[in-house]
Design a protein that fits this description.
Blueprint lengths: L4 E3 L6 H7 L15 H13 L13 E3 H15 L9 H7 L3 E2 L8 H7 L18 E6 L10 H16 L5 E4 L8 E6 L15 E5 L10 E5 L4 E2 L8 E2 H12 L30 H11 L35
Parallel strand pairs: 3-7, 4-5, 4-6, 6-8, 9-10
Antiparallel strand pairs: 1-2, 7-8
This protein binds calcium ion and zinc ion (ZN) (2 copies).
One zinc ion binds next to helix 7.
Length: 327
């Protein structure tokens, strides 16, 4: 048996693992007596987001010591932090911040590469995109309790899709039936049958399935128990528009980005901007137009305004329903 295998479920905490596995001493200001739960949480987090392979059932909770440190380094690199392998406050804060449920990495490929001490680009994912340009969407369920009205939520879905439609030839149409919908937005609670359980306020805020997913393509799931917000200060609730733009990015085929300026960064870090004025950053723009091409003409400008004007209609939608979008 290799000597570097340790049992992480012993009394090691997040900090202990980090300081033991690195030459850099852990600052004394950090918690000194981490719990067993915390070490399990660290490993679970790294597995969940693709930085560590799942534990081998034949060896129980065994994980390689070096693999955990390397996984922390890979997480730090992807997040744009210094890849020290040490769980400093910045790293921990990011690990505890709300985020998308989808993994950042496909598997442990990158980890192995780092262990070998050289930097090789991990394999590109298979291209995942819709072959159609007209995509029907449906808003199927709502948060359990939210101060946002259903009409408001629907408007935010419209504006989040518009972000992706604006630079591309994509057209989105609202429909009411499941059969007609290519994309469906649901607010769900706890375990809901797809392996990405929600966890109440904070933690996982949403996920969506790529167009290449054979059974679940177009599914956009949001945690019904988040305190969803719109035009609130950054520390009050989770900005629904921001999360919708991110999840629709996945639903259209984009993976997570390590760029701090990308809306596809996995961590939720406050509102991206107002739905009326938000535009994709350079990298997101490049990625979406690589998949779908560029729009030749401007989008029709009869989108709803963010005023109290009632019952505005959008041309692309008026055949499907009677209500407009008011923000
Ligand atoms: Ca949550
Ligand atoms: Zn995501
Ligand atoms: Zn789900």
């Amino acid at each position: 048996m290799k000597m570097w295998i340790i049992i992480l479920c012993l009394s090691n905490g997040w900090m202990h693992i980090a300081s033991a596995a690195s030459v850099t001493p852990t600052p004394s200001s950090q918690p000194a007596t981490p719990t067993e739960d915390e070490s399990t949480q660290l490993v679970d987090w790294l597995i969940k987001y693709g930085y560590l392979p799942p534990s081998d059932p034949s060896t129980g909770q065994l994980q390689a010591w070096t693999a955990v440190t390397d996984a922390v380094k890979a997480m730090q690199m992807f997040a744009g932090l210094k890849d020290t392998g040490v769980l400093d406050e910045e790293t921990l804060a990011l690990m505890k911040s709300p985020r998308c449920s989808l993994p950042d990495q496909d598997g442990p490929t990158r980890l192995l590469v780092i262990q070998q001490g050289r930097e090789i680009r991990r394999k590109r994912r298979a291209v995942s995109m819709w072959t159609r340009r007209n995509i029907n969407w449906r808003l199927h369920s709502y948060p359990s309790s939210s101060h946002l009205s259903r009409e408001m939520i629907r408007s935010l879905v419209f504006y989040a899709l518009r972000v992706w439609a604006e630079p591309t030839p994509l057209e989105f149409h609202e429909v009411s039936s499941l059969e007609a919908a290519h994309m469906q937005v649901d607010f769900l609670q706890g375990y809901h049958g797809d392996g990405y359980p929600f966890d109440g306020a904070g933690g996982a805020v949403g996920h969506a399935f790529l167009p290449s997913d054979p059974a679940r393509a177009g599914g956009v799931h949001l945690d019904a128990e988040e305190q969803w917000a719109f035009r609130q200060p950054a520390d009050e609730g989770t900005d629904l528009f921001t999360v919708l733009v991110h999840e629709f990015g996945h639903a259209l085929g984009l993976a997570h980005s390590s760029s701090r300026h990308s809306v596809m960064r996995p961590y939720y870090q406050g509102p991206v901007g107002d739905p009326l004025h938000y535009r994709l950053g350079q990298q997101d723009l490049e990625h979406i137009t690589q998949l779908y091409g560029k729009r030749n003409q401007l989008l029709p400008t009869d989108a709803p305004r963010l005023t109290a004007e009632p019952q505005l209609h959008h041309r692309a939608h008026r055949h499907h329903h009677r209500h407009g979008y008011n923000l």
